[in-house]
């Protein structure tokens, strides 16, 4: 069973920052959805290498890391439109 | 800044922010906690601000947002302290652990952090401190960048 505490708190932290991601429309640099897909793969890889931090035994991933990234993406999609 | 730096800075910032959140989440068991995690997250924000500049940064902290999060962090810390004071008579009493067994079980359940260590209010304190530090350290750099713009405006006048 996955421990719910780190998942919820990590999601809230990520969500708060994710709402502030508002790319400048006039800027030449764009960060499309493919960047977030690539980041998701990197985050899952880091979470797998990290293991269930800190010393949990509920999962093979660092759930807080993944939930923080999920919070960033959902915060960006809901309130963080540029 | 160079184009390579501009391409890599934002994704690196997101990874730094996630890593900072993970540091905050392990603060009740491992070395590090709210301050360290908040500082790591702020370093991600500052990285973006330095590379893209204040106007073009994809992560934008407005004055109202910073004031709100700073207030939420401070008030959350005070609230957790006062909750212990009102429930038991001890300021900052760990209501989620209740080592003296003087708190009703329903209050213990409210403040209990759902993980196997049951650290009580400690992870919540780390959380609010992390928010405060994230915004506080970012505000320093944002103030510097805004003051540079302000100086240029004053010189032009």
Give your account of this protein's structure.
The complex is a heterodimer of chains A (about 80) and B (about 160). With about 80 residues, chain A is an all-alpha fold. Chain A has a domain at about 30-80. Helix content of chain A is about 60%, strand content about 0%. Chain A has helices spanning about 5-20, 35-50, 65-80. The model of chain A has no long low-confidence stretch (mean pLDDT about 90). Chain B has about 160 residues and is mainly α. Chain B contains 5 helices and no strands. Chain B has helices at about 5-25, 35-55, 65-90, 105-110, 120-155. In chain B, helix 2 (about 35-55) packs parallel to helix 5 and helix 3 packs antiparallel against helix 5.
Short summary:
The complex is a heterodimer of chains A (82) and B (157). By secondary structure, chain A is mostly helical.
Task: List descriptors.
heterodimer; A: 82 residues; mainly alpha; 3 helices; B: 157 residues; elongated
Rg on CA atoms of chain B, Å: 19 Å
| Biggest interface | A-B, 37 and 38 residues
Backbone structural class of chain B: mainly alpha
Taken in chain order, the helices and strands of chain B follow as: HHHHH
In oligomeric terms, what are we looking at? heterodimer
Structure annotation, total helices of chain B = 5
Strand content of chain B is: under 5%
DSSP helix count of chain A? 3
Main sheet specs of chain B: none
Average of per-residue pLDDT values of chain A:
89
Distance between the termini of chain A: 38 Å
Helix content of chain B: over 70%
Radius of gyration of chain A: 14 Å
Outline of chain A: elongated
- Roughly how many Å apart are the termini of chain B? 28 Å
* Secondary structure: helix percent of chain A: 55-70%
Shape of chain B: elongated
Low-confidence stretches of chain A: none
């Amino acid at each position: 069973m996955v421990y719910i505490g780190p998942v919820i708190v990590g999601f809230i932290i990520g969500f708060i920052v994710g709402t502030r991601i508002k790319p400048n429309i006039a800027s030449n640099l764009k960060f499309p959805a493919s960047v977030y897909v690539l980041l998701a793969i990197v985050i899952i890889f880091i979470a797998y290498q990290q293991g269930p931090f800190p010393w949990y035994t509920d999962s093979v991933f660092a759930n807080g890391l993944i939930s923080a990234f999920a919070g960033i993406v959902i915060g960006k999609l809901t309130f963080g439109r540029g | 800044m160079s184009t390579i730096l501009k391409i890599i800075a934002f994704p690196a910032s997101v990874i730094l922010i996630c890593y900072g959140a993970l540091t905050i989440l392990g603060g009740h068991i491992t070395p590090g906690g709210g301050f360290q995690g908040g500082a790591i997250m702020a370093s991600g924000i500052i990285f973006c601000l330095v590379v893209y500049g204040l106007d073009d940064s994809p992560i934008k902290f407005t004055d109202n947002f910073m004031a709100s999060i700073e207030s939420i962090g401070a008030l959350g810390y005070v609230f957790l302290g006062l909750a212990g004071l009102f429930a038991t008579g001890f300021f900052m009493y760990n209501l989620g652990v209740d080592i003296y067994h003087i708190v009703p079980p329903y209050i213990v359940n409210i403040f209990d952090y759902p993980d196997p260590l049951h650290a009580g209010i400690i992870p919540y304190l780390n959380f609010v401190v992390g928010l405060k530090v994230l915004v506080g350290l970012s505000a320093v750099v944002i103030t510097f960048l805004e003051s540079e713009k302000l100086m240029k405006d004053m010189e032009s006048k």
